[in-house]
Amino acid sequence: MFVDKSLFFFTFGLIKMYAHSGKNGVHMHEMSVAQSIVQIVEEVLQEQNARKVLKVVVKVGELVAVVPESLQFCYRAITEGTELGNSELVIEPVPVRAQCLECGRDFSPEVPFLVCPHCRGGRVKLLQGQELQVSQLEVEE
Amino acid sequence: MKVLTVERKVLKKNDDIAAENRARFAAANLTVLNLLSSPGAGKTTLLERTLEKLAGRYRLAVVEGDVQTDNDARRIARYNVPVVQVITRGGCHLEADLVQDAVANFNLEELDLLFIENVGNLVCPANYDLGEAWKVVIISTTEGEDKPLKYPPMFRVAQVCVINKIDLLPYVDFNLSRAREYARGIQPDLQFFELSARTGEGLDAWIDWLENLIRQNPPDSGSTRKPGIEKQQ
Ligand SMILES: Nc1nc2c(ncn2[C@@H]2O[C@H](COP(=O)(O)OP(=O)(O)OP(=O)(O)O)[C@@H](O)[C@H]2O)c(=O)[nH]1
Ligand SMILES: [Mg+2]
Ligand SMILES: [Zn+2]
Predict the structure, then answer these.
(1) pTM of the shown model
(2) Is the CB of A16 less than 8 angstroms away from the CB of B101?
(3) Which of B1, B2, B5, B6 is the best substitution to test chain A (most A C-beta atoms within 10 A)?
(4) pLDDT computed for residue B222 by the predictor
(5) Which residues of B touch A26 (CB under 8 A)?
(6) With an 8 Å Cβ cutoff, is B226 touching chain A?
(7) Domain locations in chain A as residue ranges
(8) Which residue among B34, B38, B44, B194 is best mutated to probe the pocket of ligand 1, counting the most ligand atoms within 8 A of its Cβ?
(9) Sequence-ordered alpha helix ranges (H) in B135-216
(10) CA of A6: which chain B residue's CA is closest?
(11) What is d(CA B4, CA A44) in angstroms, rounded to the nearest whole number?
């Protein structure tokens, strides 16, 4: 029992309830990530006056909660039969690099722990590994 | 064929709306907490106990996020607190635009604290900033103490960790100090509350912390504080 976002209703005078209508049937966040990727690709195609995209390269940092296989699956599912239907999604994993805030040195941590191997310090600044971005497109003009 | 270098953040739209939310909350001097846990760890029960203690004295409101049903909002409404139920219809997390829509139902200037109960899920909500000041991750003693190791992104983005259901400690193999150690290994500045939302044991420290948040002006915010893990630019 749910209603559309436009149809608020009240129970006890306090509860307002609405359903999110945009992402019907979505069961994992990779779907919403894939939708955002498609949106970005479409934006770029329009800006560049490009006709068709052949390849979409997405950087996914090792610390980001995105499963590459699920993302591939979702991308296929939502682009099938569209102008992006034949494009290839390339997921480029980005390993973690961190800088220790105690001793200042850079290191590659043993994820999930971000502990400095030089001084055992646990306070770090992340240099890479948190990216989730569309980095490159191959397009046909 | 042409290669275009793009470098656009996939979640930029969400981050932008979250920033708008954060600015609105700040302008209203309102502290917002995002409660995160796996299904059934006790988010709603902790909210109920919290409202019992604070609802008469402060102006509170709740946004409930669930895949289906308004059960949780009904539970909250018993405490005479304004509540909005967001049903995600399968969506596994709340996004900033949903929160923006939901809080349009409240007069933010007239609130002291706003709780957002996220969809029960320890993975996906970690990626989505909602504009909250505090991310509170709740684990319960029935889930095993290695949750922080299995779901590190959530613990990395949180500032506060509630360990709930300590009334069940005699019956489960849950090593409290190891849970804390694992979680601190992921996020060294994590602040802990150990409590039972059922018996009320340990609840006072949590309530005191919330009352302190309400009294601070301008409000303290975990999301802008320099954390043990500094986010990548
Ligand atoms: N023994 C015990 N049971 C608890 C405690 N806190 C919650 N529970 C029980 O755990 C079950 C789930 O609690 P909820 O508060 O609904 O959990 P939730 O995190 O809101 O669940 P979802 O919204 O479905 O993700 C209920 O049966 C609660 O009564 C506690 O401290 N001790
Ligand atoms: Mg709940
Ligand atoms: Zn170091």
Answers:
(1) 0.91
(2) no
(3) B6
(4) 81
(5) 88-92
(6) no
(7) 2-95+129-140
(8) B44
(9) 147-150, 152-157, 176-186, 203-215
(10) B101
(11) 9
User: The complex's ipTM?
Assistant: 0.85
Residue that wins the pLDDT comparison between A138 and B232 = A138
| Binding-face residues of B in 56-85 toward A, CB within 8 A | 68, 70, 73-74, 77, 80-85
Cβ of B45 closer than 6 Å to ligand 1, yes or no, is yes
Query: Between chains, do A20 and B86 touch, taking CB under 8 Å as contact?
Result: yes
Residue A18: pLDDT band with limits 50, 70, 90 = low
| Mean pLDDT of successive 10-residue stretches along chain B, which has 233 residues | 95 96 96 97 98 96 94 95 90 93 96 97 94 97 96 95 98 97 94 98 98 87 77 77
Of the pLDDT bands very low, low, confident and very high (cuts 50, 70, 90), residue A21 is very low
Close Cβ partners of A112 (under 8 Å, ≥ 6 residues apart): B149, B152, B156, B185, B186
Contact of A106 with A128, CB cutoff 8 Å: no
Ligand of minimum distance to the alpha carbon of B122: 1
Q: Report pLDDT for B209.
A: 98
Using a CB-CB cut-off of 8 Å, the residues of chain A touching B124 are 28-29, 65
- CB-CB under 8 Å, A126 with B231: yes
| Domain residue limits, chain B | 2-232
Q: Using pLDDT thresholds of 50, 70 and 90, give the confidence band for residue A13.
A: very low
Class of domain A2-95+129-140: alpha beta
Percent of chain A with pLDDT over 90: 74
Query: Per CATH, the architecture of B2-232 is what?
Result: 3-Layer(aba) Sandwich (3.40)
**What's the whole-number average pLDDT of chain A?**
85
For strands A97-100 and A124-128, give the pairing: antiparallel
CA distance linking residue B123 with residue B21, whole number of Å: 22
Residue ranges in B28-175 assigned as alpha helix (H)? 43-54, 71-77, 96-103, 147-150, 152-157
* Ligand 1 near B39 CB (within 6 A): yes
Q: What is the DSSP string of A68-113?
A: HHHHHHHHHHHHTTSTTTTPEEEEEEE--EEEETTT--EE---TT-
